[in-house]
Amino acid sequence: MDLNTVAEIRDARVPAPWRPGDAWLGGGTYLFSEPQPWLRRLVDLSRTGWTPVERLADGSLEIAATCTIAQLSRYAKELAEPAAPLFERCCRAFLASFKIWNMATVGGNLCNGLPAGPMISLTAALDGECLLLAQDGVRRRVRVADFVIGAGRTVRAEGELLRSVTLPARALACRTAFRQASLYGLGRSGVLVVGALDPADGSLAVTVTASTVRPVRLWFPLPPSAPALRAAIEAAVADEEWFDDIHGLPAWRRHMTLRYAEEIRRELGDPSSELEGNGEG
Asked: The pTM is what?
């Protein structure tokens, strides 16, 4: 879509004061998808040259905000860690064409803050941490689970840039389980639940996205009982936080979340148990 209010595109490598009507431009798959009448200038990140995905000295992975879905998918295919399959499953949750995969960025998906954002699901489930850069040069780090605070809402301040997301090595070593449901065969995620079992101490993290207005990550020192897991989810998600739109009513999202969380608890809490189906609705 033409953005006929945009008068200028600025290279992000050249410092300049931030002003009203500015917006960061990554892949542009959202910005150019609908009218943005408040925009006056785009600050283009495409030539920053940031490495899409980089292994750090401590074994963690740093994913640049400009990393595309296609780049992340290709990189994850070479990962040997137990959590590697989760990357592809979350990439596939986009249900998007190759054109979107080659343009849409990890950072853009997080900054949009939409409940069905699968990069939010992936990075929150693996205990990711966002690196944010303010206009005055101040840096701060925020856990992905705390970065998105509502449907389309994040903690990012005006002009603040999401530089990268770092996934700790310990999370990459986790055994994961994935469940997704949609009302339509090729529809947007209405429910997405991920479990991550830490082999180091036996702890279990269950992360709920798509069905809620914000990511909800619950951590248990040991896999909980079925009633304890259900109670934890119901305590963590207020009634008004179950998302309500054309892709699913709150009651259905809540029901499927509880069902999938229990399937994940059984799958990861008891490796010998076998569940029917492939875990996708």
From this structure: 0.93
